[in-house]
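Q: My labmate handed me this sequence with no annotations at all. I'd like to see what the chain might look like in three dimensions before we decide whether it's worth expressing. Could you predict it?
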Amino acid sequence: MNLTFGVVGVDAQIAFAQAIRTIKDVLHINENLHFEKSADGQAFFGTSQPGGYFPVDKPFFLDSQRRLCILNGHMWYRGHFPLFEEESIRQRSGAADELCLSGRINLEAIGGGVFNFFVYDELKESLFIASDYSGIHPLYYAFSGKCLYFSNHIRILSKVLAKDYDPVGIIQRTSFHYTIGKRTLFEGIARLRPGESLRYKVGENS
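A: Here is what I predict for the chain of 206 residues:
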């Protein structure tokens, strides 16, 4: 299973450990799990990407910028696709700069792509998420306790957070074959819409 998962917040370490136990025990995902955390312990990112996203298929921490990053998908990179890990991280570092400064990524600068890009900035104590306009890679998030949880698999979040089905979401899916706006089939779990960006400040509840 291609999985991207993360927890950001005051109690992120405990929340992430509990989530991983659920993922392994309930969903039987235990292979190719890669984890990374921020130096301040308020952000934990994990991936299980058997196919990989060459040349970097796991979270990485940028010491010089004090940022934890993870890319689910691909950025095209105008004119040159990175062939080595160092080069790829350098290019993603530039995208992280732009996202943290402006709250968005200039798709013209990177040549487009299909992705969800996550950056936790320690200095700002904030998580930034950006999605491309295609929506090919889904992204779901939820608030619980003092943390924000995110994953590209809604079933993962529903199991980790023990969420019930949303009757309105079910009616919408049954009637229209899709849910409207951020609504999903589970109560308390929202969907990041195509092309949308999100910023979460540690300590906020929503």
